[in-house]
Specification:
Elements: E1 9-12, E2 18-24, E3 31-37, E4 42-49, E5 61-64, E6 70-76, E7 83-89, E8 99-103, E9 105-112, E10 117-122, E11 127-131, E12 137-141, E13 151-153, E14 167-172, E15 178-183, E16 188-192, E17 197-202, E18 209-214, E19 220-225, E20 229-234, E21 240-245, E22 249-255, E23 261-268, E24 271-284, E25 292-304
Antiparallel strand pairs: 1-2, 2-3, 3-4, 5-6, 6-7, 7-8, 9-10, 10-11, 11-12, 12-13, 14-15, 15-16, 16-17, 18-19, 19-20, 20-21, 22-23, 23-24, 24-25
């Protein structure tokens, strides 16, 4: 991208040879998506959405459908605070009219489910599934009372919310079969995306859950909270494994591909801190002949910045 153009979001295409760049033009003059050839170091294609989106708004979320047909560009609208999503269809020509959807949500609380659907967690606790083809809401994931249906169709207002308070983070398994949602209500929920039903609710945090992530092989869920703890859970049954008291609010979290390190970003007294936890497997003694194995979290080092 030319040095005088500001790129605020990017994502890699499936061939690992092209990258999608998101650029918001100055003074509300529209949004441009650039398909960039990494080997040739040149732009292959530019897609423009000319509508003004505000003086200070910029693309902060960018993702592709699994078949690389659709590009979803998202920004937080400074006028009404809503998340705005612009969907570009890469199979159409450069003069297309992109689909646009606005939701009362934080723009990054979004996950692409497959070739044409997206799920977004809203400030009112909904998990709204919407279409990249039409830019319209389709249905919700909801937490039903015993015996009630888990899927409500007909729009966002048709069903009760998945969470009691704002959805703060989403994590989707690599095969898109499981979705983890975190919420300000202090819970995480695990959803079976084949049936779109709630599998189980993870409880233990005593304040807002601000972030969550899945391990590379989808064995573990890791979560960070305003209760100043990091917790590790097992995905297959929702079992709590261990926790670490950090002494700070945790608002971003990742687990390494080897599952040996958790990296988190926290805040304490307006001072941000990067913390790295080592996952150590220890053999615990028991009366049985065999020895059970469970992870334990140690803090090797951390840094302020």
């Amino acid at each position: 991208m030319p040095s005088n153009e500001l790129c605020t979001a990017s994502c890699m295409m499936a061939d690992n040879e092209r990258i999608v760049l998101g650029r918001t033009d100055k003074f509300g003059n529209g949004t441009t998506i650039v398909i960039w050839d990494l080997m040739g170091n040149q732009a292959l294609r530019r897609l423009k959405y000319d509508a003004a989106i505000g003086f200070a708004d910029y693309i902060s979320y960018l993702s592709l459908s699994t078949d690389n047909r659709y590009v979803v560009a998202g920004f937080q609208n400074s006028y009404d605070g809503k998340a705005n999503y612009i969907v570009f269809d890469l199979t159409l020509d450069n003069y297309q009219e992109p689909k646009v959807l606005a939701l009362d949500a934080e723009v990054g609380v979004t996950a692409v489910l497959g070739t044409h659907e997206v799920v977004t967690g809203t400030r009112s606790g909904e998990l709204a599934i919407w279409s990249m083809r039409t830019g319209k809401p389709l249905r919700q994931l909801v937490t039903p009372p015993p015996g009630a249906q888990t899927l409500a169709r007909g729009g966002l207002a048709a069903a009760s919310a998945a969470h009691k308070r704002e959805v703060t983070a989403l994590a989707l398994s690599a095969d898109t079969k499981f979705l983890v949602s975190a919420s300000a209500d202090g819970t995480l929920k695990v959803w079976d995306m084949d049936t779109e039903k709630l599998m189980y609710t993870l409880t233990g945090h005593t304040d807002e859950v601000l972030c969550c992530a899945l391990s590379h092989d989808d064995e573990f869920i890791v979560s960070g909270s305003q209760d100043r703890t990091i917790r590790l859970w097992r995905l297959r049954d929702g079992a709590p494994i261990c926790l670490f008291n950090c002494g700070m609010d945790i608002f971003q979290i990742k687990i390494s591909e080897t599952k040996k390190t958790i990296v988190a970003l926290g805040d304490r007294d307006k001072s941000r801190k990067l913390i790295m936890l080592q996952i150590v497997r220890t053999k615990t003694r028991s009366r049985a002949p065999s020895r059970a194995t469970s992870p334990v979290l140690n803090e090797p080092y951390n840094n302020r910045y």
